[in-house]
Structure formats: C-alpha cells, structure tokens
Amino acid sequence: NVLSAFSAKLFKSTQARASLREVSVVLPHSWDTDSLTCSLTSPITISAVDTPAHIRVSSNHPVFGARPWTQQSQGCGKSGDYIQLGGNLLCGTTNESYHQAASQLLGEWAKFRWGVFDERGYEKDPLFPATFRDPSSNEPRPTSCLEKDKPFCLPNDHVPQAPTKHNAQCGGRAAWDIIFQSQDFHGDRNLSSNKTDAMIPTIHFVQAGPPSIVLVVEDTAVMNIQRRWEFVRKAVRRTVVYDMPDGAYVGVVVFNSVARTATALAKIDSDSDIRQRIGSSLPRNPSQIPESHKCLLCGFQEALRALDSQASDATGATVIFVTTGISSTPQRELDEMTHLATVRQIRIEAIVYPFMEHIDSTYVNKGLESLVSATRGSVFTVMDEGVGNDSKLSMMVALMDSFLGAVRHSTSSSSKIPLLVHNKEYPGGIVSMAKGTFTLDDSFGSDLRFFIYYADLGHVGNTIDLIMPSGKKVTSASMQEDGDANVIYIKVPDAERGEWVYQIENRADSHQGLIMQATSSESTARQISLKVWTNTKSMVTGGHEPSIPIIIYAEVMDGEVPVINARVVAKLIHLHINTEGSKYKPVYIDLYDNGFGDPDITGGDGIYSRYIPQMIGLSGQYELSVMVDNNNGLSNKPISNVITRNSLKLYEGNEKRMCCGSIIAYEYVTPLKNFQRFETYGVLSIVSQTLKDTMPPNRILDLKVSVNLLTSLVTLRWTAPGNDYDWGKANHYEAYLSESWDQAKALAGEIISGMPIPVTAGTEQSVEIFVNKYDQILYVAIRAIDESCNKGGVSNVAELWMPKPPTTIPPTTTTSTPQPTSLLIESISSDITQPVRVDGLDIEELALIIGAAAGFLLIIAILATLCLINVVRRHRYQQKKENNGVEGNRNKRIKTNSSLKIEQDNSSASVDSAVKNVVVVPTLPSWSASKLLQEHEKRFSTTSGPLMDAQLAGFPYQNMQQDPYPDVTLTGNNSDPNSETNSVAQSDPPAYQPSYTSDSYQRYPYDYQTNNTHEDLPPYTPQGPSSQNSQASTEYTRELDSHPSIIQYSQDSPVYSNSLPSYPSDESGFVQPVQLPPMYEGYNDISHKQLVKHTKMPPPIAPKPNVSICSAILTASDPTRRNVTQV
C-alpha cells in the first residue's frame, strides 16, 4: 500500500513522467518463509543477487526515528547511497498513514535518485538555519517553500538566496532543474503519459540465496616463470579450504586459447571432502600456450555454463578472474562480456597476477578495468617479486589476500568471511626468534586461527609458541600443517579476549622470510563493518581538461548506526618500481567525517572521505586499502534519544527529526570498546600528463557570518581549503561584499581587503570587516587560489543584514499657541496633548534623574566628611602618643657624627639641643650589607631554606621597588658583625615577605628581558636538588645591562616534512598513524621561529653584593643585579 501510494505521488509530482514499474523485496536469508507464503501476493523466489538495496528497512534511527532518510556521500546531481526507514513506518493500517509515509518517501527518493538536497532549514544548524531574510521584503521568513505533495520548491517559487543545503551544493539552481537534467529525463526521455496503470508497481518477494562463485584462472606459458603457477595453486587451495563460507557454490575454470571446467559447481560445507577436492583441482603444471593467445571471453562463457549447471537460479553470481592482463582484449569481446554480465547480473572481480610493469610505466589496461567497473566489481593487483628462479613468499600471501578480498566483495555481510586481525612479515637471513603480539577484542568472534606462512618448510624452526592472554600456551596438538598451502596453522575454537603473544624460530633465507597472520570471524554481538568505495576508479591530471578527482569514501558502522570520531586511514601503494629498482613507499591518508561540504557532505553520518593528493609525475596504478580503529578510545556511537524511544505518532511533521543538515546532531552517544578493521578496495589508475600543478583548492562550503550591532563589525568564519583540494594550504583568498546574490555568485562587487593568509586545510579561519551599509541585505562570497593560480570554486553565499544604529532624537518644537493651564504640556492637536520632551525625555523623567543624582552626591559628601573627621582624630592621637614616647626614652642615645648640625630659623645648634625638639627613634640593632644580603638570599633561595608560596615566587621584577626592611633603621658606619668594632646588635634580620599585587603576574612562559642572547650564556648541565645557595654558583653569575632584550627559550618540536603524510607501520604491517594536529596533515609550514623552545640553559644570577647597603635594595632603575633563579 505504501509503495503504491508512493508511485502515484511520484507520477503526479514529475508531471506523469516517472513511476515505479517493478519492486523486488529481498527477505533475509535467515527468515523462515514457510509461514509467510500465505500472506504474500506472489511466491518467494530464491536468488543469489547481492545488489545494494535502494531502500533499507531497519530499526529506528537514533535521531530520525522511523522517518525515512537518505545517505548522500557525493555532491549535486550524484545519486545517493541508500534510503533507510524504520519498519514501524510500514505498519500503518489506514489510507492516511499510507499517504503520509508515501509523502515522506517521495522527497527522500528524489534525493537518492537524482542527487538533490533539502530546500529547508534546520533549527540551530550553523550553516542552514530555519529562517532567513527574504530579499524581496527584507523581512525574516522560514527557509522553506514546500507545498503539500511537492517534495521540492517549484521553479517559480525557488529562492536561490535561501541558505539551504541544496543551494550550497548546487549553486542556487532549482531542484527541479537538476531533476529534469538527469538521465531519467534528459533529452526528452520518459515524456508525459496518460496511462494510470503505470502508477501500480509489480512487487516480487525474493529471498537471498547462498553465493555462487566461479574461479577462472589463466593457464598460459607466462605462469611457467619462477614459482608463479605453484603460488596460484596454493592460493586457490587456501581460499577454497579456509576462506569460502559454508553453503557457497564454488567451481573452477582454466583458460588459455580455449577454456575448460576443472571442477563443476558444487556446494561446500564445513570440513567436507568437497573443499579439499575443489581446492586441489588446478593442473600441476601450466600449459605452454603463449599469453598473447589467451581468450578471456572463452573463460567467461565457460563460467556461465558452469553456473547454468546449478539446479537453482545462478543470477547474481560472481566470477573471479586471475589473469596477467598484459595483452589487450579485443573490444568486441569486452562488449560481449559486458552484455552477458549485465543480463545475468554477474559481478566480475579481477586479480592481475603477476603484475609485470616496467619502471614508471604508464600502462593501464582500460579494457579489463571498464569491464570490472561496469559489473560493480574491483581489480586487485599482485606485484611480481622474485630473486633468480625463486619467487618471494610475500607474492604468494598477497595473492591469497586478493582472493579473500574478492570473495568478501562477492558475498553478503552476513556471511562468515574471515576478518584479518594481524599481519606481519619477518625477514630471514639470520636465525632468530620472530616475536610479536596481537589483540583479539570483542568485535571479533571467538574462533581464532593463527597462520605461519613459509616458502620452504625448513624455514620454520622447532620453536612455535602461542601464548594466551591468561599466560597459558597453546598445545602442539592444536597445530596442523598444510604443505599444499605452505602454512602451519593453529585453530583455537574458544579463544580468550586480550593480547596474544607468539614467538617462532625463523630460519628463512635472506631473500625470503616468515609471514604471520591471525584471522577470526565477525562477532555476533558487535557488527563493526567497514565499506570502502570511490567516486571514480581513474583520474587524469595535467591535461587540457582534467578529469574528476578521485575521492576516497569509507563507511564505518556498528550494526545499523554510524561510528563517530573513529580513526580512518587509507593506504595507497604505487604498483611500480622506481628508478632505483625498489618499491615506492606507501602514502597514508587520513579520512574525516567533518561535514565541511567538500568533500564530506554531512558530519556525523559515519562516512569518512578525502581527496587523494596530486601524484605529480607518478602515473600508474595504485592499490587502495583502508584501516579503521577506535581512535584510542575516542570513538563512540549514537543511541536512541527520548523522541525515538517514546511512542509518538510517526506521521506528524517534526522538523527536529528531518534529515539532514550540515551535521547530524545526536543527543546521546556511548563510547566504543577497542576494534580494528582492514579492507582492501582494489586498484586505482592515475595518469599524470604534466609536471605542473593543476589541482585547485577545494570549495569553501561552510562560510558563516555574524554581525556585531554595537561596532558594525561583521565576522566571517570558514574552514580553510588546501592547495590541492584539501591538501596543504592555499596561497591567498578572494572575497567580495555584494548587494545582490547574483553579484556575489559571480564574485563581483566590493573587494574585501585585509583577508588573512590561508592556513593548513581543515583549520578554521575568521576575519572581521567593517560594514557601513545599513538596512539592506548584503551577500558575501569567497574562494581560494593556490600558488599556481589554480582557482577554487565559489563558496556558499552568506547573507548579512546590518540595521541602522540608533540616533539621538532632537528636541521637539511646537508652533501651536501656548496653553495657560500648564507649562509642562504642549499641544499636539486640538484634543491630544503630550508632555514636552528634551532629547527624547519628558520633564518628569528629567526631574527624577536630577533628583537621584543630587541625592547620590549628598551621600558622597557626608561620607567624605566622616572620613576626614576620623583621620584628624587618629592623627592627633598618634602625635600625643609619640610625644609621650619621647619623654620616656630620653636615656636612649642616637649615634651620629660629631660634626652634624641642624639648621633651623637661620641659627645653628648642637645635636643635644636639637634632640629636645624632634621625635627620637629608638635605637635598633644593625647589620652589615653582606650579612644582610646573605641572610636575604638564604631565606629566599629556591635551593635551600623554606620555600616561598607558589604564588609569591612568580612576581615580576618591576614590583621589587620598596625597601626590603621598611621597619628597620640602620645606624653607624661599622655594621659588619664580623668586624672588630662592635655594632649595636648582631641578631638575624627579620624575615621579609615582599608586598606586591598579583595584577602584574604573568604565567610562564613569559619574555624575560636582557641584553644577553642565549648564545652568550655559559653552558648548563641540569643537576638534582642542591643545598648550596645562589652565591655558591659563581660560574652562572652574570651582570645584566639596564636595557633588556628578549631571551627565547627553545623547544624541541616535531618536524613535519613537506611531503605527503606517512606513518610508521604497526605489527600488522599496515599503519599506525602518529597523532597529528586536529586536521589533515602536520603543520609543516609553521616556522620554527614561531614555536616556544625549551633549550636547557642556566638563568643568569646576580653577582655577590657590595658592602654598601644600597646594593641590597632592588629598584626598577637599577636592573644590573637580579636573581633570575627565583624568577
């Protein structure tokens, strides 16, 4: 009912040009359909077709609930990945519920089929708000123009200025323009029809059957070289015996100039003799027919005959070719194979073995690649590696892994295909122990298999230890040897979770080695899945018309929900030999789910993407593989929120549950435990026709505008693009402020000056501009240009509105006759009066303000008077107390020079007579300058004595201006306690706590001022805690000049190369990226002069003080002495 209603609405909205004709409903293989046949309109058929579903019926989404939503990973005009909806949406029982569900499905179908996006806004979305200012009325309005039964705005109602996701991705074009330019309608295809029966689709119910796979192996003379044919036989055996899922139908065909069936299609079960028979069915020796005589079409036709021999329908089967791919296949044969594969819905996977290319060859087998691409298959490549007459072990294992990847692509995700847990190669040459570890987490099943691959059985010594996480050793009874696959394997049916340890005695030759692998099935509790694809399989750079750049996509899911904040790394291997005769180093690429718009469309959808870097001068084929893990515990997955848990009506319009803005706003997430997945995608072809840089910066699609009404400043924010799409950094920006949307889109209008220098791609940038155009809608657009003058696309056009600032209202004047009744009222009309206003205020308001101000001033005056009286009283009391003190201390003396005179009233008198008229200070003990400074440094040294408070230890130098001992009076000339002349007292000086304010306190690191550069300072060796004070460190003492300069402290910082990012391999031989800054690549362009550095050098220390007491008083005017150790 829902599909019929949906077809009718599709027929109406497309003006009778499209409707559903046929629908296949695929039921899970695990369902028992015997009880369902009575309620279905047609019988269930069994099919092996494993095509991606257009619409997926699943459990409710954590945010969207049962409402349908479309996953779109590519840009405007590109088909989406799939539509997903909750099963509850199809459980309605009324016509109203059917039509509501059909209306929701209609809009998502347009996005999925024709590559359009939503023409509505979203609450709290930073890029696509729910409202905007209408350019025709200058008034706010909702960001939507949708009508009932219309999934998108009509062409006449479309507003290109609206900040919608569709306008940003499609450059303001109407959605219906994109739809009618698609392949379904372009060139007057599918014209309007009056047939009403076209609205009723035919529905077929199909249940997924077991996979059917035919291995088609080339048997020509090229396989006679070295151990190529031996490795083919061993790889086929391992694939059939160990990797094929139970219940699959498998057959083997060999071909050269003709083709024949080596083993008919047969069903294989667990540990059956059929696995052994099929795995050993290849001839022991290859033929002598030249490779140029091979017939690829003959092998494909023989595979179809093997599939036809099966009792059930073999539609949707998989054919895996193993061929050298050297000789080109005639186009006639390729066209015939493509036609047969399309009719039978056959998937073709190709393994190019061995891949024999010359140095930096630009050869690309276009025929084989086009055939595989047309049938949704992939190409795997195995490099030809050998020494003399011997082929390397790595070549055999690579062929086995290619078979495993092709089988995984050919079967559904529910099949128990082994997952790679660990992979590492140990070179030979010296007898040693190959030691390693791997982790089996709960994302894998409990059936662990550990493999030891060897080129010769004698390369494996007698010691083979596999230790469980609990410390127990796996017994030798669990080990098995398969000489037909050159492997010793250990099967652990109920493996422990945790870290496993192994050590194997390695006796391999110098040109060989041992390879360790661990595999397991997928966990039934946690289904972590990794899917990899690209927008295209080939790219041409440097031509007059460069092709579409390759974008890598990786979808990471935990069951039916996306995995957020995972670490996803792609690895590209150049499948050629460099000029030095060795392999190229892999290139590692971090993928991101950030929702910046180019290339990642929506943030938080579990799709990680990125452009591949420009391979200047490196034409050829590249093998792509991807690794994902839980990002050191930072990854998580969304869980259902309150809305989706409650039983709300499924058909009411709820904007919060619509998909999808710039980012999916999950309300609840939960962290994920450890997991790791590997996936081999296949081969990409890159042809570079020039050494010039032809890749422009990527588009800026997250330009945002914020307005400060007080300062009339407008802040622009965006994510920096790169030099080559999202790699590196651009050279400069072009930004325009326009009065119309069309001008901004064409980058016309007023040029915005003062734009910042671009930074590394993925970093947010901002700039403030002054706008003095008020009460009108303005538009801003920006683009980046690289150093080769390659111009990026125009950004999304951002809208801004600057209201006119308020002005002062002048005094109101009147021309009417004054009214005698009141002086406070002026006549507005004959019957309306209004208070007189001055500068916008009436008389009553002014009186109130003046009264409040006068009262406030009166309070201030009273408080000031009271304070003055209190000060005078305290002063009188203090003076009286001091006078009493003078009378009581006449017996105490003041030591002075005998020649001292006091001049007063133009007369001279002796000291004795002067004492009578002055305040006498009590005699206090005195100390010498050296004793005083020693005690001061002893008490406040950072290496001895009690430590100062942490807050007091960091005070700035300029605050040390007051007398260090303000309460002490020093008398006499002979104050040295060690001198022969006795002073008044020789007791220790009191402790001093400097008084200062924390306002001038600066957190470390701060710039310390001195004229001496760090090169002039003596060498420094860090030492432990010392009991010596600062005076003992004479070798680190230095005089400082009065005019300071900056000392820079160096810091050992990581140096990022300007080349492509690469990371060290982990034990699996894949990649373990180094934790880089938040986005994209290392900040290799940051000058080291801009980094704070930590060069270990001694701070300068003040010299030993002089005898004069003035040297003990530190002032800002005398910076020649400073204890920097305390600073």
Task: Please characterize this protein's 3D structure.
The protein is α+β, with helices and mostly antiparallel strands and 1127 residues long. Among the domains are: 2-206, no CATH class; 419-520, Sandwich (Jelly Rolls); 532-688; 704-801, Sandwich (Immunoglobulin-like); 808-845, no CATH class; 928-1053 and 1091-1127, no CATH class. Helices cover 17% and strands 24% of the residues. It is built from 15 helices and 50 strands. The protein has a six-stranded mixed sheet, with helices on both faces. Strands 17-24-19-22-21 form a five-stranded antiparallel sheet, with helices on one face. A five-stranded mixed sheet has the order 26-35-32-29-30, with no helix packed on it. β47 and β48 (907-909) form a beta hairpin. α7 (296-308) packs parallel to α8. The radius of gyration is 42 Å and the shape is globular. Residues 358-364, 643-656, 812-840, 886-924, 941-1069 and 1071-1127 have low confidence and may be disordered. This is Calcium-activated chloride channel N-terminal domain-containing protein. The chain crosses the membrane at residues 846-872. Pfam families: CLCA (PF08434). Residues 4-128 form the Calcium-activated chloride channel N-terminal domain. Residues 970-986, 1023-1035 have a biased composition (Polar residues).
How is this fold's topology laid out?
Elements: H1 2-13, E1 22-27, E2 45-47, E3 55-58, E4 69-71, E5 82-86, H2 95-114, E6 131-133, E7 140-142, H3 165-170, H4 175-180, E8 202-208, E9 212-218, H5 228-243, E10 249-255, E11 259-267, H6 273-279, H7 296-308, E12 318-323, H8 331-344, E13 347-355, H9 366-374, E14 379-383, E15 386-387, E16 390-391, H10 393-410, E17 419-427, E18 432-440, E19 448-454, E20 460-467, E21 479-482, E22 487-492, E23 498-506, E24 513-520, E25 528-534, E26 538-541, E27 551-558, E28 561-562, E29 567-574, E30 587-591, E31 607-611, E32 620-629, E33 636-638, H11 642-645, E34 669-671, E35 676-688, E36 704-708, E37 713-719, E38 732-738, H12 741-745, E39 750-751, E40 764-770, E41 777-785, E42 798-801, E43 825-827, E44 833-835, E45 837-838, E46 841-842, H13 843-888, E47 902-904, E48 907-909, H14 911-915, H15 929-940, E49 1008-1010, E50 1045-1047
Parallel strand pairs: 1-8, 2-8, 3-5, 9-10, 9-12, 12-13, 13-14, 26-35
Antiparallel strand pairs: 4-5, 6-7, 10-11, 15-16, 17-24, 18-23, 19-22, 19-24, 20-23, 21-22, 25-27, 27-28, 27-31, 29-30, 29-32, 32-35, 33-34, 36-37, 37-40, 38-39, 38-41, 41-42, 43-44, 45-46, 47-48, 49-50
Pfam families: CLCA (PF08434)
Organism: Meganyctiphanes norvegica (Northern krill)
Region (Disordered): 881-907, 958-1040
